[in-house]
Amino acid sequence: MSTISEYRGKVLVAGATGKTGSWVVRRLLHYGVPVRVLSRSEEKARTLFGDKVEIVVGKIQSDEDVARAVEGCTGVISALGSSSVTGESSPSEVDRDGAIRLVDAAAKAGVTHMAMVSSIAVTKWFHPLNLFGGVLTMKYAAEEHLRKVFSQPGRSCTIIRPGGLRDGEPLQHRLQVDQGDRLWSGWTNRSDVAELAVISLWVPKAKNRTFEVISEAPEAQQSLEKYYEQLHE
Ligand SMILES: NC(=O)c1ccc[n+]([C@@H]2O[C@H](COP(=O)([O-])OP(=O)(O)OC[C@H]3O[C@@H](n4cnc5c(N)ncnc54)[C@H](OP(=O)(O)O)[C@@H]3O)[C@@H](O)[C@H]2O)c1
Fold this sequence. Notes:
By secondary structure, this protein is α/β, with parallel strands linked by helices. It has a single domain (about 10-230), classed as 3-Layer(aba) Sandwich (Rossmann fold). It contains 7 helices and 10 strands. It has helices at about 20-30, 40-50, 65-70, 90-110, 135-150, 190-200, 225-230, and strands spanning about 10-15, 35-40, 55, 75-80, 115, 155-160, 165, 175-180, 185-190, 210-220. It is globular. The chain binds NADP nicotinamide-adenine-dinucleotide phosphate. The site of NADP nicotinamide-adenine-dinucleotide phosphate (NAP) has 27 residues, from helix 1, helix 4 and strand 7. NADP nicotinamide-adenine-dinucleotide phosphate binds near residues 80 and 190.
């Protein structure tokens, strides 16, 4: 497995202090990609990443904070996620409005590729997960906005819809990918979701793809690039 990518540019990670986001940062650093993180807490980001990343302190609710965060970046990876039904960490504030704000700021700043962590069942308003503040509906609104804004010439996006998230090392499972939101259940390691998001920066077949992903069986993987070969636009 290659440890150095030819990707040139700095990548902003939103939600970097989260369980998936911190894997995104680790995988970017693994490939030698310069990283900036947007975090509500400098202390939390510093404790996790030391001086290996640039930190912009701010909230996803603030136009000004988000504009500062994306400035000078070529790529953005969003692993933002809500954690309460109401308030600043709610699905409407974070998964929809925050993500949409990030998409718009990224496009304005000249970001050329953006990857977003979404969820399986995101198109199914009647799924039980949606009882949590309409989280699936909110995520779908953000997905739609990202596809619209980043399918313009000179930009691209990748939307990853994982099953239930678990912890563990990356590249330890054979994956199943699908499109059309047909998977109802399944689970995925956060670290594999992070790996898929990171390599989408430079894998041509990852551009402008929306797909679901779950783990199929334990099996060491050299790379996850081959899963992008199975997708259509
Ligand atoms: N859990 C599952 O089984 C599952 C399944 C499918 C998809 N997903 C989706 O996968 C994604 C990642 O999940 P996860 O479990 O890794 O998430 P997580 O650990 O809860 O991390 C969420 C991140 O979002 C940040 N955040 C929340 N509100 C914010 C705000 N107002 N301003 C700036 N940052 C804010 C958090 O920052 P702080 O550290 O400051 O709180 C944290 O970094 C989420 O979008 C989730 O919905 C989850």
